[in-house]
Structure to design on (618 residues):
């Protein structure tokens, strides 16, 4: 068993409180009510749940976008304090559901990623930045010419590839992906899942994958924590949880997960050249 | 409906769409081409496809609700004896709600945020039947109970914002049914909902189609959703129907490469990432598909002839496909042996 990279202990996040515009006391909303997680180096860990379960709030705490009300997050043995520690900030990167929101619409892709590389001291000069950007784009299946274009010139799937390239630019140790394929059409979704899987295998990334969809999690992750109503109701290896769900909520979620009758077109499959991951 | 369908015998026909073409009026860009479908009583027909496939526009055309600047350019849509494309505004009003009920993706925008839900349902009841306010209120309570609200009297007093997404969608369905329509059009009714809530709404739609013996068209991008509730499936791509048939048969033995590719791209709880296949390229932009099969640029089986006009033709009992290369597909006899 490899070492823990990220430890979340008794994490709690409350929203609300204070007073509204009529000075009435607002009720607290406990979005996360005591979550413990240990994410090991090199593994791909899923947090699954429906809206309001608290999964995205946990993700935000992990990347430092949300301050916990109580509890601790430790990264590589140190307390997480991304606002002070720039090394931690670099080590943890995020892929968002809507990559368009995380890209500057007025900058070319090459400009945006190049700036990121230079600011973080990954490269010495512009020429090196260009070379590294081209390498990153190739890694996510985009042509080098993408560098000269602005985000709006790309389709949803291509934008998500750029979002992934951006997150990987400064060699993070931990990648947190919040619903990275939920906004994409089915045919495009598959290509992004295949890309993420390849990156996991090639780069040995540790990944926290937030999703509402157990079928998607099944493709990408080793372990899964099922969240409902601010708590983890079940945790285990993806295979085990899908085959033998213990918690009634997990069973309900699993019942609602995509199921299709098996394809019987064996002959077609043999004829098909079976293209794997392709840009889309 | 007077015309007897030449295809298979089926339950009483409610909707018949023939050779439907829809275009962006000013640019004369076709966005839907040659769509023909029918729905009978008690039947749930799924129209599946990705964004830009023309599935939503087809549904809007049936309801006479095409957005400004987009118009039916060809073909006929007959709902319960009314030709939607030629109908007067008066006939259209009778049609909407009275014959055709509609459920859209985002329930919050379909509801009036300042009105209690009981009153909203009652208002729809009175729009279609000459009944007293009291009778309409009673009818609204009955509808809420039918939608699975445990305490209709209490729920009727709620405002939309006090309800969960699934409950809101049930209210929208109640409103859609207030005029006792015989055909229910659902455009991505569960897309904004959580998975477990989706299942409940789908169960409700199934129950309604059986108990009320109404026809349902369910437009969805989600094959899993369609697989759960549909009797028949229509697969659309690039503004055209590429395949049609009984749901189970289409999903098990697709007869169009697009359906086949789509099925291999969907992650399920039984699939593994190494079996997953992405579809290279991107769907054609609206109105940009050529005269031939719109899937050609992304199709691994395409040949020269595929760029010429193809029609949706019968390929086996109850099934039609718009792929020329039927020799690729195992025929039904062989397939049953598999």
């Amino acid at each position: 068993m490899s070492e823990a990279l990220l430890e979340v202990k008794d994490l709690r996040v409350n929203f609300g409180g204070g007073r509204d515009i009529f000075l009435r006391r607002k009720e607290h909303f406990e979005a996360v009510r005591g979550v413990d997680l240990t994410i090991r180096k090199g593994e791909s860990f899923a947090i699954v749940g429906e809206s309001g379960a608290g999964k995205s709030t946990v993700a935000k705490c992990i990347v430092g976008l949300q301050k916990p009300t109580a509890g601790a997050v430790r990264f590589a043995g140190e307390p997480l304090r991304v606002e002070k520690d720039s090394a931690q900030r670099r080590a943890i990167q995020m892929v968002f559901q809507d990559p368009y929101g995380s890209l500057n619409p007025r900058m070319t892709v090459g400009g945006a990623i190049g700036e990121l590389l230079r600011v973080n001291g990954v490269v010495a000069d512009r020429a090196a930045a260009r070379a590294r950007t081209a390498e990153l784009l190739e890694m996510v299946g985009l042509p080098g010419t993408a560098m000269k274009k602005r985000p709006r010139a790309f389709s949803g799937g291509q934008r998500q590839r750029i979002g992934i390239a951006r997150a990987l630019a400064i060699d993070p140790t931990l990648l947190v992906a919040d619903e990275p394929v939920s906004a994409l059409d089915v045919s495009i979704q598959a290509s992004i899942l295949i890309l993420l899987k390849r990156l996991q295998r090639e780069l040995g990334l540790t990944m926290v994958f937030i999703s509402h969809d157990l079928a998607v999690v099944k493709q990408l992750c080793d372990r899964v924590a099922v969240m409902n109503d601010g708590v983890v109701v079940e945790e285990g290896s993806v295979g085990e949880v899908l085959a033998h769900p213990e918690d009634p909520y997990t069973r309900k979620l699993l019942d609602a997960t995509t199921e299709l009758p098996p394809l019987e077109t064996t002959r077609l499959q043999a004829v098909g050249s079976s293209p794997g991951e392709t840009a889309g | 409906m007077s015309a007897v369908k030449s295809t298979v015998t089926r339950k009483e026909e409610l909707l018949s769409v023939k050779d439907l073409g829809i275009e962006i009026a000013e640019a004369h860009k076709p966005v839907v081409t040659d769509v023909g479908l029918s729905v009978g009583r008690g039947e749930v027909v799924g129209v599946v496809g990705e964004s830009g496939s023309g599935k939503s526009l087809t549904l809007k055309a049936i309801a006479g609700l095409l957005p400004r600047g987009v118009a039916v350019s060809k073909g006929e849509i007959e709902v319960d004896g009314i030709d939607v494309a030629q109908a007067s505004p008066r006939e259209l009003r009778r049609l909407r709600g009275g014959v055709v009920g509609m459920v859209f993706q985002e329930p919050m925008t379909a509801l009036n945020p300042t009105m209690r839900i009981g009153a909203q349902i009652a208002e729809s009841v009175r729009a279609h039947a000459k009944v007293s306010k009291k009778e309409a209120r009673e009818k609204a309570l009955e509808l809420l109970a039918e939608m699975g609200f445990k305490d209709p009297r209490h729920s009727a007093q709620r405002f939309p914002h006090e309800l969960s997404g699934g409950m809101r969608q049930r209210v929208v369905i109640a409103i859609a049914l207030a005029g006792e329509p015989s055909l229910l059009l659902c455009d991505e009714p569960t897309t904004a909902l959580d998975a477990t809530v989706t299942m409940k709404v789908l169960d409700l739609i199934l129950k309604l189609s059986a108990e009320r013996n109404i026809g349902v068209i369910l437009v969805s991008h989600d094959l899993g959703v369609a697989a759960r509730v549909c009797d028949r499936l229509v697969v659309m791509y690039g503004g055209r129907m590429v395949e049609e048939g009984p749901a189970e048969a289409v999903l098990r033995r697709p007869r169009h490469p697009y359906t086949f590719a789509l099925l291999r791209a969907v992650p399920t709880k039984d699939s593994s990432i190494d079996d997953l296949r992405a579809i290279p390229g991107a769907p054609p932009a609206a109105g940009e598909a050529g005269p031939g099969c719109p899937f050609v640029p992304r199709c691994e089986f395409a040949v020269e002839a595929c760029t010429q006009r193809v029609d949706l033709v019968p390929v086996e009992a109850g099934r039609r496909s718009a792929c020329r290369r039927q020799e690729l597909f195992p025929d039904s006899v062989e397939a049953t042996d598999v």
